[in-house]
Amino acid sequence: MGLPAVTTLSELTRKFKALGWQEKQGKKHWFFVKGTRKVRKPNPHGRREVHVSLLAEILRTAEIDHDTWNAA
User: For residue 61, which phi and psi values (nearest 5 degrees)?
Assistant: First the structure.
């Protein structure tokens, strides 16, 4: 199953937390952290949506497959 065309930032955060990631604040960005893995959370800059291409890159960095993401 593929990824949705657009995901909201709140949905992104909810799913990362459901998958056991914690949200932490750095100096300039928020991060999702799980063990030794760290993934930067996108800044909204007026938009509250994450395009599918950015979501795919975030999931690749976090080593989360599409099936796991869709099931969360």
Answer: -65, -40
